[in-house]
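#onboarding

Welcome to the new folks! Below is a worked example of what a typical request in this channel looks like: someone posts a single protein sequence, and someone else replies with the predicted structure as tokens. Don't worry about understanding the tokens yet, we'll cover that in week two.

Example request:
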Amino acid sequence: MKISHSYRLLLVAALTPTIFAVSSRAEDRVLKIGKAEQVGMSGPRLERVNQILTDETKSGRVTAASVLVARRGVIVLRGGWGTLAPDAASAKAGPETVYIVASISKPITVLMLMLLVERGQVSLNDPVQKYLPEFQGPDREKVRVRDLLSHTSGLPDMLPENVKLREANAPLADFVKGAMTTPLLFEPRTSFSYSSMGTLLAAEIVERVTKMPLAQFEQQELFAPLKMKHSSLGLGKRALADTARVQGDSFAKSEKDLDRYGVNSSYLRRLGHPWGGLHTTVDDLGIVLQMFLNGGVYDGKRILGRATVEAMTADQNKRLGHPWGLGWGLQSSGSAFGDLSSDRTFGHSGASGTVAWADPQRELVCVILTTRPWREDRGFLLRRIANVVQGAIE
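Example response:
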């Protein structure tokens, strides 16, 4: 029987002999390929992921998908399915395939700001106006930095003029200018409203304090130290054709619009928008999640303090009854982390059809990147795979 390219990748996790001993110290764990049974998981049960994604890509419902699953630092599933684009000549997808991961960009942006917090350069309880004096308007003096990170600032998700700015191929600075003055939806900390513009202003604070572009700061402080070789905010130096193509677009309506400002346009892919412009792979996101499970350390490098990790993954909105961490969403928020994840699970999904989560209770990391937008099935495919992964624990 001929084994497909993607299936060969999948079998690595199930059949490769043990190549290292599992560390007894969580903070020492570095992702390496091993056997599912080595860490109390079932290879045959994980095989269901292959069955699901083979069916989804063969049917055309999903163009490309890549998955990484690890427990206690052992990679038990790593593979790719489908092709980067719908045409027959397109390259096959694999675990090294680069996707635009949409809102998974947000916790990475917040991580950068939290570095400044633990270095004493920013305080979460400071008013945003301390760092962005032009942030003016009714109730804006009440908005704290932490409100930008937990979606309680009152800022909208997108600007009213969002489509017009994209149509004009406006620079990111124009979005920042709009976020400085657009009306708040409610008085800060009185409600919850998911806000991409809050993340944009968090990024603006990072750039003003560090005096460097966010993309450069991410490369310097996260991607380079953790050897995340396939990650960049914006398209970076890679060609657009070398990345997975998102299926459809909720903003652009015509082919001309798609080419000019759609999710697969050169403009949007190069914009480097901190709420959705991260390009990365399942491998690189797996490293970030494992670093969090390790308490801020990975491969001998401390990226974050343990207290910072705890703050980012703890509910900041208890009084409002809408759980959210600092950047990270939580299992109790009702997300794409599946039905079986423990209450301690944190992560983030993306509108382009992506999710990355970690379950500290079960020492589990899962990254699922696809090209089918969230709106197509409201994250059903992502939840199905998450359930299979959790169900594979013996």
